[in-house]
Specification:
Blueprint (H helix, E strand, L loop, with lengths): L4 H28 L3 H5 L9 H37 L14 H6 L7 H13 L22 H8 L5 H5 L9
Helix pairs in contact: 1-3
Length: about 180
């Protein structure tokens, strides 16, 4: 059953409210995010302790991730508003079927039915390369270039191993 004009107006208002909320929160968030030197109060990053800088960079990375997610959501909202104007809001872009009203109430910027979205996500998961690096234990890897620290220490020893400590220093003069 197609959406009524009242339902479309309700969804349009909900989308516009979401858009305004995103834009308002983005503007206030940008004001809080000054340059890294402003955040730390330092002119350069050379004299800061590594842990202090790591904390600042970690926070900046989180902020960027949140901004990217907000930008993506804003794009989806704009697409949904365009679809309302074009008269195809609530119709799946992949199958042409109507999107359940309950789904639109939960995610007003949805452009696919639940089934089509699941199929898309499954296809994305299947298209990932099989040769991605993993942290599997030795012997189970197809690509043995990635080895654990334990593997390397067993193979080469380390600076605290007894054999390393017992070796003579080649620079030491023998008498």
């Amino acid at each position: 059953m197609a959406l009524s004009k009242e339902e479309l107006q309700q969804f349009k208002k909900q989308l516009l409210d979401l858009k305004k909320e995103l834009l308002d929160s983005g503007a206030s968030h940008r004001d809080e995010n000054a340059a890294l030197s402003d955040e730390t109060g330092e002119l350069t990053s050379y004299d800061n302790h590594f842990a202090d800088m790591a904390s600042e960079l970690d926070q900046r990375e989180k902020d960027i991730t949140l901004e990217d997610a907000a930008r993506e959501r804003l794009s989806l909202i704009n697409t949904a508003l365009d679809r309302i104007r074009e008269g195809n809001y609530g119709i799946c872009v992949d199958t042409g079927e109507e999107i359940d009203k309950e789904r639109l109430e939960a995610i007003p910027y949805a452009i696919r039915t639940k089934e089509a979205q699941d199929n898309l996500e499954e296809a994305k998961a299947d298209s990932r390369p099989d040769d991605e690096a993993t942290f599997e234990t030795a012997g189970n890897r197809e690509d043995d270039r990635l080895r654990t620290v334990d593997d390397l220490q067993r193979e080469h020893g380390n600076s605290t191993s007894e054999t390393y400590l017992e070796e003579e220093d080649p620079d030491k003069e023998t008498e």
